[in-house]
Every structure is written in structure tokens, then in C-alpha cells.
Amino acid sequence: MNASADDGPIAPNGTPWWELTIQPDTRNKPFGQERRLAAWLWYNKDIGDIFTMNELRNALGEDIVGRSEHLNRRLRTLRQVAWIIWSYKDDASLRPDEYRLQAKGARYWLAEDRQAHRRFAPSARVRREVIDRDGGRCVICGIAAGETYPGEPSNIARLTIGHRVPQERLRTRGTADDIENWRTECARCNEPVRDELPDPRQYDEVLAQIRRLGRGHKRTLLSWLQQGERTRSEVDRAYDLARTLTRNEQIDLITYLQTSSASSS
Ligand SMILES: [Zn+2]
Question: Which of 69, 94, 125, 137 places its Cα 20 to 30 Å from the Cα of 215?
Fold first, then answer.
């Protein structure tokens, strides 16, 4: 059996994909609950739509939703195959039982799409290594998990990992993915490019700020823009490390810095 992109919401046995409990081309292999969830979201929700736990419960049954940890595990699986689904942890304007669909990922209910993405999905170990290597910050904008975006106190950053060379190109080359091709990105920088209308007034304001920078800072900014990534200075890295210390250790450190900056100036 070969399901293709145009097969639509109805599985070969005549029921919608999200109502299947048994795989259509087998006698009794169970049809995974993540697959039902992905199919339901794909055909019933648009990008930007909010859905609630109750809505999922009504559409898919209690066994898929269960308690919120249960549902969160299923959503995590979909996030690993490029779905972007926000909860109140990503956007404080959402209630704890609400989620917003930010981007649709792999058509997980189709066997071949699921396998293609699985092969390129990073393991939890790779994810941890990459995020540690990058100092726990988005390499594009520099935000750390749990921080809020400048000027948007309700938008909390969550880190994910993304590719330097796009997945599609690797797939056509048939090369295995290695850790150097992964980089830490926040969910926002990881989003597909947004089509926004340019606002010339905004450009002028940005340019005015940039003009005020010294030559060294201009050069740094140029390299960040050219690379599409920002580097972090020695002070930035020291600050990241200092923040991993306990409160008491931080107080000791503050005392140390107060005395050493007083004596060296
Ligand atoms: Zn970012």
C-alpha cells in the first residue's frame, strides 16, 4: 500500500486517519496515537489556531489525551518531527489547557513520512550535547530557555535544535547527520521564514541605532548578520557560567567582583 501526499483525510479503509485504531494494511497492528493526533491536527486546524485538551478529548478520545503529562509526551513526539505546537509555557497568553499550532511538521500518520523524519530526528543525547556545546542559548538571537523576548514579557523562549545545512539537502545527498550540523535555536528562530511586509520606518530606526555603534561593534554586527548567528564574548560566557551557580555562590562572586573592580580601577 502506498499512501501519497494527495490521499487526503480518509485512510484506505474508508475512515478518517485520526479514527483508526488498527493500521489499515495489517490485521491487528495498533495505529499509534501520535499518528492519530498528527492527522487530526493536519486536517482540522490551521496555522495559528488554538486547540484545547477538551477538544482533543472529544475528537480523539480519553486514551489520547489522558492527563496533561500524557498529552505532552505525544506533543513532544510530534515536535521531534518538525511540528511547532505552543503551550502556555511558550506563550503566557495561553491557558494551561490551550495549545496553539504554529507550524505543521511531518505527516506522521503516513508510514514513509514518519520513517524519513525519524531517520533525521536527533536523539535526546544529541540534543543535550548540542545545547550544552552552544552554552544553552539560541545561536541566532542569543536567548536562553525560560527568558522572555525583548519587549514581549508573555513570550517565553524554548530551545530546540535545528540544522545548519537543511535536512532536505542532506536527505538527497544521503549523508548521515552529524552533530556539527546541529545548532541550538529557539522555537521562534527555528520557525520557517515569516512573510512580513517591510516597514520602511522600522528600517530607518534600526539604521539610526546601528549608525551610533562604534567601529568594532559595527564589525561584530556585520559578521553576525553574514553568518546568521551571533557569537558570545568571554564576558557573555562567564555570565552564563555564573548563572549556573547557587544563589549563595553568586553572592560570593558579587562580593569578589566588587572588591576586585574597586582595586583595579
Ligand atoms: Zn532565537
Answer: 137
Q: How many CB atoms lie within 10 A of CB 38?
A: 27
Distance (Å, rounded) from C-alpha 22 to C-alpha 13? 10
DSSP state of 185: E
CA of 24 from ligand 1 middle (Å) equals 41
Render pLDDT for 13-67 as a digit per residue (tens, 0 to 9).
888 999 888 887 777 788 888 899 999 999 999 989 999 989 998 888 877 777 7
**Cα–ligand 1 centroid distance for 186 (angstroms):** 4
| Rounded distance from Cα 100 to ligand 1 centre (Å) | 19
For the stretch 191-223, what's the b/e string if a residue is b when 16 or more beta carbons lie within 10 angstroms of its beta carbon? eeeeeeeeeeeeeeeeeeeeeeeeeeeeeeeee
Q: Ligand 1 centre and the CA of 7: distance in Å? A: 36
Residue keyed to cell 494551561: 96
- In the reported structure, the alpha carbon of residue 133 is separated from the centroid of ligand 1 by a whole-number distance in angstroms of 16
pTM: 0.50
